[in-house]
Amino acid sequence: MAAAGLRRGAQALGPQGPVRQDAWVAFMNPFPLFPLELDRVPPGLILALAQEGVPACPRGERPEGRFVLFDGRKGPQRPLAAWQVPLDIEPIRRGFQADPFDALLDEQVVEASWEVTGLHLSERIARTDRRRMRRRIMDRLREQIEQAGGIWINIAPYPFPYRSAVNLRIDHDCYQQEDFRSLMAAVEDRRDATSHHLSGMACEQCPDILRRMHGFDVGVRGYRPHIYRSEQENYENLARGMELLHHGGLTPSGASAPGGHFTRAWAGAVERLALGHSSEIRMSYDDWPFFPPGSSVLQIPAHPVSLRLFLANVTGEGVRRAAAAQQAVHAAVDYFRQSARAKYHSGEPVFFSGCSAGCLGRYPQVVRAVFDTADSFAAVWPTTLAGFADWWRARAMIRLKVETQGDQFAILADGVTRRWPVAIEYWRGARVARIPLAGKTTRFSPGAVAYENRTRRPTVQPMRIDGPHGLRHHMRRLLETQPAGTPEETNDNTLRRWVARTLRSLGA
After folding, report:
1. What is the rounded radius of gyration, in angstroms, for the C-alpha atoms of the chain?
2. pLDDT at 407
3. Average pLDDT over residues 51-66
4. What percentage of the chain's residues is helix, strand, coil (to nearest 5)?
């Protein structure tokens, strides 16, 4: 009688009619639904599963989960236990122009553009939109598992009961007194949701920066806000910047490369200095954190559009220039408000960034608009990058096993600490139930939990810029590729410095 009632309840859960019978099969099969066992699968899939928080483990001698993922390109599946189900991931690749698992490891960049209320924004960002690629892969894998009689569960990306997080990273590459003062007035009460990344040169220009940063989450950009070609040069530059911060009584928790660059030479230097996280839009943007293969430095992606891109449209002189700047700022405020709402309702992190001098400090209304919008959300977590990195590392240590026990699912958890309240997400179509973990074992019935819609609201997507490029583009590329001197170099008569000065005179 109880089983029949559960079956009827399960059939009523679907967002668009009855649930498929495979949900009933999952209830009746006693073998663990999770973790997924991984047998010679691509590194890109392992990275995606870790980001999603889907319970998975390498295949070992002792069977642990019902579903075994394998890559048909690497030969036939090895023998399984009688109760295990093999799932070949090869069909996931169909329809992609290139291998999607390789794309998740792509470290190339591309020139991209956005059109926002008639303004043209352009920036060099990661070539692959990892978030969209991961979603497509996970949707196909989820369909495979559900068709084979499984369910879809993952560890929630935020501590319970939050459904999103907000952070503004502010980069201080140089110092302008009035801009700095107005910015600090705007964020004085936002210490829980801002992270300040400092260059040593800016701190030398005004030692007061170091005093004002006490109590804030602080990161380092190097002594000079510049990225070098060799790991040793980046190491020396970062170490010199960190030394200045330490003398000022500050301990940086992470780093961010100037210009959003990501190179292995930069990542290696960050790792050698034991900085736990970094953030570069040329590695990833608008995505959940991840560890690049071979690195212990956590990448925390941010949104690639900043106020600086809006202000790059400002032209003219005097009154005309001031009016154009106000128009660009109004457009930026509207854009960030809309983007924050879309991210929150999609369950994505609301992580923005921008520079202090000439941008956020000069127009602090943009900062206030971001936080005023975030304050209107019911379940957003204000966090620093250091706090989010701590949470993400703790999340990565959690191990789950999902079993069926009578008419319920049982979540057996290991690695959960008292510091972080953890929840799992149980999915049905576009509807999701967030269920807090209660100790070592948490049981729930799908018919007795509350669901919410998790829509993927559209946001402005970058478009790749193809075709010929103008003078500014080629000069930017020259600036990026021109070999740099050592961090101790002070000679201004270099091609690099000439290009930088010329770009500034062009407003680029």
Report:
1. 25
2. 83
3. 95
4. 40, 20, 40
Quote the pLDDT of residue 463: 75
**What confidence score (pLDDT) does residue 489 get?**
42
SS (H, E, C) 31-67: CCCECEEEECCCHHHHHHHHHHCCCEEECCCCCCCCE
Q: H-type helices in 121-230, by residue range?
A: 130-147, 177-187, 200-205, 208-212
d(CA 74, CA 286): 32
How far, rounded to the nearest angstrom, does the alpha carbon of residue 114 sit from its chain's CA centroid?
Answer: 20
pLDDT of res. 27: 47
At position 261, the amino acid (one-letter code) is: H
Confidence (pTM): 0.86
Lowest mean pLDDT among 42-46, 379-383, 489-493: 489-493
The CB-based long-range contact list for 15-21 (8 Å cut-off, 24+ gap) reads 15/428, 15/429, 15/430, 15/431, 15/453, 16/429, 19/428, 20/146, 20/147
Per the prediction, the chain carries an average pLDDT of 87
CA distance 409 to 27: 8
- Cβ atoms of 479 and 499 within 8 Å: the answer is yes
Give the integer Cα–Cα distance in Å for 249 and 115: 43
The token duo for 428 is 């049905």
- Which residues, 6+ apart, have CB-to-CB distance to 155 below 8 Å? 53, 55, 395, 398, 400, 422, 423, 424, 425
Q: Where does residue 226 rank: exposed (0-12), middle (13-18), buried (19+ CB within 10 A)?
A: buried
At residue 382, does pLDDT exceed 80? yes
3-state secondary structure labels for all residues of 71-115: CHHHCCCCCCCCCCEEEECHHHHCCCCCCHHHHCCCCCEEEEEEE
